[in-house]
Amino acid sequence: MISLSLPRRLQRGRDERLALGLNWLLLALLLVAVLLPLAAILGQAFHGADGSPASLAPLGDTLRQPGFVAALAGSLQVALATTALVLPLAYGYAAALTRVLLPLRGLFRLLALLPLLAPSLLPGISLVYLFGNQGLLKAWFPAGGIYGFAGIVLGEAFYTFPHALMILLAALAVGDARLYEAARSMGAGRLRQFLTITLPATRYGLVSAALVVFTLVVTDFGVAKVIGGRYPVLAMEAYKQVIGQQNFPRGAVIGLLLLLPALLSFAVDRRLQRRQGAQLSARAQPLQPLRQPWLRALATLFCSVVALALLALLGTAVAAAFMRQWPYQLGFSLQHFDFDMVDGGGWPAFGNSLRLALWTALCGTPLVFLGAWCSSRLKSAGGAGQLLHAIAMLPMAVPGMVLGLGYIFFFNHAANPLHGLYGTLAILVLCSVAHFYTTAHLTARTALVQLDPEFEAVAASLKVPLWITLWRVTLPACLPAVLEIARYFFVSALTTVSAVIFLYTPDSVLASVAVLNMDDAGDTAAAAAMATLIVASSAAVCLLFALLSHWVLRRSQRWRETS
Question: 358-374: buried (b, 16+ CB within 10 Å) or exposed (e) per residue?
């Protein structure tokens, strides 16, 4: 009997040791991909441009710059205005989708999420075509008024709307019908019900959405680069210092300042999450959508106006890409897709983006899934698993531009043994995986914690190796989430600008960066054409993953179906 049980204990111990080694390996990867670049930017921020010893002089010099105060004020004004514009629109849109029996609900949801498929540069290009000096509706903003504050706010509203909407959809998706019935029996009208029940129940979602919008606007420079004109913002100031003036210490200081709103938002969100109580009890009654004809008509009208505005901004850039010369010759033409005639990157840049997106999905998906598995299912991981989860949450609070700056200072250092990665596609893949790691990690962890924790114990009692259980049980059960992670990595890597703007070389220029370069060179139509290719590729990949997920669910997820 001893001779039979000994091999099982040895096998289990070897599996546990290998899994624990995998946990530490993933920790080392996150250390290199996230923590060390952030440490490098912190060190660079407190060194002078001449390599003088560490001091607070660079910080003081940056804060005393006259342009810095204007850029800081501009970023705060734009972020506050965009948040004030997006939040009520997204809340009303989410309420219409979740609380009203809305016709064409799926179509309205799809239209609202379309901006996720486009780079942040696209709304700026569309606003130029609509309201710029040669725009169809230039009379709405006379004397070039779209270039500056108004243009940045409108462009950022398009860019951030779906992010706020997804949070608010989750906040408004649940509700206890008993509370509303009690309020009606006490004579409370709809406005009082909203102020005393709906709004307090969704305050966490509202604050989270506001923090996300504020942080995205402060750290994004794509819209400001295209349509900001001379309006100063911090993200553009960091771009000018690094790319234009090669003043890396000052760029690092501004990068650290861009990190502050993200860290503050993350801290506030975590605090509110701990204080948020459950909105549904075991006795809760599901909230039925409202069916009044006048309310359905009003909700349909509101969603139609918002969806058409989003579609107009997206469609304008796409339509201009296929027109001979906007707005004088509106005939169909493919001449703007002849990227060999313009500077900026062309078709090789588009190919690089596809390769980047593919490798990011192929490398990031297994890393994220194994990391989430180690931190949530591996009991022997202990503190190492908790540390892995903690570091995996860090990229959520790091803007892409700040991470890209950190990669410059860390990987471009001559003493770094990983210096050979700098300027290659590999470093772009590593940066993209690190930038989008947190959302993917939370998706995988959510799927994993839904599985019975006894799976591994039962498998061990049956002498089934840990890795066989992972391959044959855990992975198939989480396959829909794995496909969603791969789709997220692919589309995010294809559309990102801020995380890679400092890391590309002439040989590894990307499509999103090519859009920026073409617009800088005055080839706005070619930039619109490249942005159209990005949107079309993202949509095609999303459709492909949707079909693949449907096929997987039918082939290997029949156990999820009820009899």
Answer: bbbbebbbebbbbbbbb
